[in-house]
Amino acid sequence: MKIYLVSNNSLLEDINYSNTSNLELIRMVRPLSIKGEENAKIISELPIFQNINGIYSSFYSSALQTAKYLQQKLELKIKMNMNLNDCQVGLLGNKNMKMVKGLQEHDFRYKLPNGESLIEVGNRIDTFIKDIKEDNIVLFTHRRAILGFLLKYAKVDYNLDDNLILEFNNEVIYDDSDTDYDIYEINMQENISIKRI
User: Fold this and answer.
1) What angle do CA 162, 164, 166 make, to 5 degrees?
2) Whole-angstrom distance, CA of residue 76 vs CA of residue 53
3) Sheet with 155-158, side-by-side order of all strands
4) pLDDT tens digits for range 125-137
5) Alpha helix locations (H) across the chain?
6) What is the pLDDT of residue 172?
7) Chain centre distance of CA 1
8) In angstroms, rounded to a whole number, what is the distance separating the alpha carbons of residues 117 and 87?
9) What 8-state DSSP symbol labels residue 83?
10) Which of 20, 53, 142, 183 is most buried by its number of CB atoms within 10 A?
């Protein structure tokens, strides 16, 4: 069974969310940037996605905005599922997002109150994938959610700057570099195989 995990990482930055302090809501409704829209169009044209049988998306605007181009091209319905939502941050308190990210990438069980650890989001994504019966599908989700999933199967290491690196079959499949989008091909056979596209 072949599954693709897709994250479009180009989100609109210059937004002022007045009258709300709900971080999770802000993250959920944050739209793609113009570059993100361009990424979504590029993703929908990739040859690997021309014979897809199913499209799934998280409830986040950015994932849906990315999925819509492939949905229109293939004339398939988008199946939304909360299990594909991003890793919940929780209550930041006196911490910031960069600090939480660094702590979580060195302690995969670390989480804030009302938040999720990378282990927890990885288990959520892994269970969802194992319950899918379709073949050749795309899951539009988020970089942290994908990272949590990859942690279950990849070798963990750190580079000279102490940034997280993941390897699978002696190939780096995840690093801390900024990418416009991430695509992973997962083959669920007796033994899982993972490759970064």
Assistant:
1) 140
2) 8
3) 155-158, 164-168, 171-174
4) 999 999 988 889 9
5) 23-29, 34-45, 61-74, 97-104, 118-131, 143-151
6) 94
7) 19
8) 7
9) G
10) 142
Q: Reduce the DSSP state of residue 164 to 3 states and report it.
A: strand
CA angle 83, 191, 172 (to 5 degrees): 75
Mean per-residue pLDDT of the chain: 92
pLDDT tens-digit readout, 88-100: 998 888 888 889 9
Around Cβ 66, how many Cβ atoms within 10 Å? 28
Collapsing DSSP to helix, strand or coil, 36 comes out as helix
* Sequence-separated (6 or more) residues with CB below 8 Å from residue 115: 87, 88, 89, 90, 91, 100
* Residue with tokens 């988020």, as numbered in its chain: 142
Tokens representing 146 are 């994908």
Tokens 């802000």, located at residue: 26
Q: Which residues pair with 158 in a beta bridge?
A: 164
